[in-house]
Amino acid sequence: MEVVSLVNGCSGNTAGKVIICKAAVAWGPGEPLVIEQVRVDPPQKMEVRVKILFTSICHTDLSAWKGENESQRAYPRIFGHEAVGIVESVGEGVTEVAAGDHVIPLFNGECGVCRCCKNPNTNSCEKLGVDPTKSTMILDGKTRFTTADERRQPIYHFLNTSTFSEFTVLDSACVVKIDSEAPIKKMTLLSCGLSTGVGAAWNTANVEAGSTVAIFGLGAVGLAVAEGARARGASKIIGVDVNPQKSIIGKQLGITDFINPRDSDKPVHEKIMEITDGGVDYSFECVGNLEVLRTAFLSTYIGYGTTIMLGIHTSPKLLPLHPMELFSGRKVVASVFGGFKGRTQLPHFAKQCMEGVVKLDEFITHELPFDKINDAFQLLMDGKSLRCLLQI
């Protein structure tokens, strides 16, 4: 098979050829990512090869890179799932997108034919839903990445996307076409963080005008929840975080009250009950901590309060709830990708973002070249960034 190298800026017709390009390869848990040459195979049947333009890092990438869940440890691996790009070529049978289309990768795919995809009450997909343990393509169980040296060592995929690469191959169910007039750099946010948070407020909770909200953890997802609640007209949006700096950016994105648990000996849920005369209508747990989840649950109003869980829980411990507590009327639900069906609903959400329904600029706190990806990881670990865009 013909090979074309893009590492030194070479270009031309690449369809049907192996591409040699740059990628950030993880060789082991917690090890610095290495920018090196990789081979990217052409897309096979019902697959798409995408030229990634911008990618960013979220806490799911961080926890996977750290190796916090042993079942996810497949190395070498190309992480990354939040990005935007242009279709380079498509495989046999692909009709939804074509070369040149602007697309967003979807870590939570939508095949459109399984029982879940046909059900309007879920955005799960039986074939290409979220599966951090999956590390190969669904067609043949093989990878489309290999090392560029003579070993041709397989490099594993991540979350259906693997966006820390100049080119990546995805199942066609894991890409969605967006308007070519959309600000492509900002559209990176829609492939994970912004959609997850705003969608949790809009789709999972269905926050109403005048309702009250508490958000535990003001990272990018938590702040996106706040922005979604603000856009829906929530009367009170309480942000909870141990980082006092989050109160500043939080107030730009709808937070009306800020609580730092370290500033008082009084339990956070009691403070929230005081502020809201008995509890909030909706609480959102965006940390991935069981104690925080329980506090979020206790912060909702008895009878109808709903807690939406967005944080990733890597611990094997079970929910900190007694079954009888649910008889009070309070509920706990989880939200994946904000309840959005990616290929069906994301184009409309992108248009809403273009129209200014929700803010985008405030979420992009840093921009770095791709070869500074380890610096971007450090910014996230230090709590200094919401989203650091990496231009590839």
Automatic annotation (TrEMBL):
Q: What class of enzyme is it?
A: oxidoreductase
Q: Which GO terms describe its biological process?
A: formaldehyde catabolic process
Q: Name one GO molecular function term.
A: zinc ion binding
Q: Which InterPro entries match?
A: ADH-like_C, ADH-like_N, ADH_Zn_CS, GroES-like_sf, NAD(P)-bd_dom_sf
Positions of the Alcohol dehydrogenase-like C-terminal domain: 220-339
UniProt KW Cell inner membrane keyword: no
> What does the record give as the reaction this protein catalyses?
a primary alcohol + NAD(+) = an aldehyde + NADH + H(+); a secondary alcohol + NAD(+) = a ketone + NADH + H(+)
Q: List its EC numbers.
A: 1.1.1.1
Cofactor(s) it depends on? Zn(2+)
Query: Where would I find the Alcohol dehydrogenase-like N-terminal domain in this sequence?
Result: 45-141
List the Pfam families.
ADH_N, ADH_zinc_N
GO cellular component terms attached to this protein's record: cytosol
Family statement drawn from the similarity comment of this UniProt entry: Belongs to the zinc-containing alcohol dehydrogenase family. Class-III subfamily.
Self-association and partners: Homodimer.
- State what protein this is by name: alcohol dehydrogenase
Q: Origin organism of this chain?
A: Cucumis melo var. makuwa
